[in-house]
Specification:
18 helices; 532 residues; binds glutamine; alpha/beta; seven-stranded parallel β-sheet; 35% helix
Length: 532
């Protein structure tokens, strides 16, 4: 085992350049050379975690095995690497300050003035080293959220400066991602924003080792040389990251740019040989050369921002590739669906997926979508709130409990078929208080769900407060909607299905957090298959 090497990925010029994908791609290349790699994201906002953020603000909240509510980039890390992340892989400024303030209250600082340097920066460094310290990983890649030059990012850049000084360039590397814009009027690619952004890093005491330039057009040798000269990096350390049709191409492009070789060389490591990307390339082939296609309706209320459903989207891509099928996903806003138009909106689709969510906005549209799928034998996949909507629909239309609802939406419903979990009653704080993370589930043999998984014992990740109300289970099962999976310890219903339907499965958990490029999720794979 080599001592852990630390790589920091910072971003300049603008946000949304894809630091997460660059980090995940580098990690993939190192992993494909046989190294143990993990990726961490440091987020400069004050929220303790993104769990309390509206998806419109920051996209999806990704949940780890250990129940941490984290940034959506962790989803990319897991999907690329196929190894789980944890609470330690996502740290926010809020969490850093919370620890420092707790220590101060305990008196741990022995009367000293508590300051950004050294106390906040020490806590940042401790959180970074925590992942390497266990000597589990050869590389810890830390992505620093935000853009260099933001006030909020300063303590993080300072922590990088200190670590570089303490451990040396062979052990601590900074990769800086910037944008090279193309000016149509003059037909030129411009390097000035990159130069300025590197200058900003230098002002903060950090000389980047490698520059990754995001661009819409090929960068010539002259441009690369110019950037190397102005920004004080080696000429092989200017890497091009050109726009591609899918994020899953990026590791291949980065390999062509010898990104992994440059990193290994700089860190004094063996760079001979090539990463084994065989299975990855096989996936890409299936993704690009699909023989058939299918249309899925994704019904949700955050559809204006596809990042809000990013794990579901990626899971659908993985499942499409597994079936060698191109999946066209149409987003349908649940608030737009009503009795007058639901048939027109939904009829073109071979499958309907009702997405997770919170609160009652758009809930009746989701319930209608479930009804349409059930009545017309159209494959239906309900995830979390999507399952709950299917249950409410079945209660109202099949069990004739016309006012059935979830107590999340209607406290006064006479038939709370979805109700608050016992342990949730009395909880008033919002942050980190849901049923979160991985729980076991036993699948009933003979069900469609069992056929899809091929297993009877699974674990899946959760993020919800409400659950199926077991008081109604017998009535549901007698009428044809059965429980296909339960939690063995609590008997909470985790999966409902209609065995007589073509494919009708609702899950209380989030299977989308488990789908990876090389291991697509069986429920998504089977759902897509049923729509073909
Ligand atoms: N709002 C529902 C609950 O809390 C569903 C949550 C979700 O879809 N993630 O139970």
């Amino acid at each position: 085992m080599i001592p852990t090497k630390y790589i920091f990925v910072t971003g300049g010029v603008t946000s949304s350049l894809g630091k997460g994908i660059i980090s995940a791609s580098l990690a993939k290349l190192l992993q494909a050379r046989g190294y143990e790699v993990t990726i961490q994201k440091l987020d400069p906002y004050i929220n303790v975690d993104p769990g309390t953020l509206n998806p419109y603000e920051h996209g999806e909240c990704y949940v780890t095995e250990d129940g941490a509510e984290t940034d959506l980039d962790l989803g990319h890390y897991e999907r690329f690497l196929g190894i789980p992340t944890s609470q330690a892989n996502n740290v926010t400024t809020g969490r850093i300050y919370q620890s420092v303030i707790n220590k101060e209250r305990r008196g741990d600082y022995l009367g000293k003035t508590v300051q950004v340097i050294p106390h906040i920066t020490d806590e940042i460094k401790r959180r970074i080293k925590l992942l390497g310290g266990r000597n589990k990983y050869d590389f810890v890649i830390t992505e620093i959220g935000g853009t260099v030059g933001d006030i909020e990012s300063l303590p993080y850049v300072e922590a990088v400066r200190q670590l570089k000084w303490e451990m040396g360039d062979q052990n601590v590397l900074n990769i800086h991602l910037t944008l090279v814009p193309y000016l149509k009027a003059s037909g030129e690619l411009k390097t000035k924003p990159t130069q300025h952004s590197v200058k900003m890093l230098l002002e903060n005491g950090v000389q980047p080792n490698i520059l990754v330039l995001r661009t819409e057009h090929e960068l010539g040798d002259d441009l690369r040389k110019k950037v190397a000269l102005f920004c004080n990096v080696d000429s092989d350390s200017v890497i091009q990251s050109i726009d591609v049709s899918t994020i899953y191409e990026v590791p291949i492009l980065m390999q062509k740019e010898r990104f992994d070789v440059t990193v290994l060389k700089k860190m004094g490591m063996d760079f001979s040989g090539t990463p084994d990307l065989g299975p990855w390339n096989k996936f890409l082939k299936r993704l690009h050369h699909s023989k058939i296609s299918t249309k899925i309706a994704l019904v949700g209320k955050y559809v204006e921002l596809p990042d809000a459903y990013i794990s579901i989207n990626e899971s659908i891509k993985h499942a499409g590739a597994a079936n060698e099928c191109h999946v066209e996903v149409h987003y349908i806003h649940s608030e737009d669906i009503d009795e007058s138009n639901y048939i027109d909106l939904l009829k073109e689709h071979s499958g309907i997926l009702v997405a997770p969510g919170f609160g009652d906005r758009g809930i009746e549209g989701k319930i209608l979508a479930a009804r349409y799928a059930r009545e017309n034998n159209i494959p239906f996949f309900g995830i979390c709130l999507g399952l709950q909507c299917a249950v409410i629909e079945f209660a109202r239309d099949v069990l004739h409990l016309e006012k059935a609802h979830s107590t999340e939406m209607s406290l006064k419903t006479p038939d709370p078929v979805i109700d608050l979990m016992e342990e949730q009653k009395g909880i008033t704080e919002k942050g980190g208080t849901m049923r979160l993370g991985a729980y076991p589930c036993i699948i009933k043999k003979g069900t469609r769900t069992f056929e899809a998984y091929g297993l009877s014992e699974i674990t899946e990740r959760h993020r919800h407060r409400y659950e199926f109300n077991n008081k109604y289970l017998a009535a549901f099962e007698n009428a044809g909607m059965i429980s296909a999976g339960v939690n063995p310890e609590t008997s909470l219903v985790e999966i409902m299905e209609i065995p007589t339907h073509k494919w009708f499965i609702g899950v209380q958990f989030h299977p989308e957090y488990h789908s990876t490029v090389l291991k697509p999720h069986p429920l998504f794979v089977d759902f897509i298959k049923s729509t073909i």
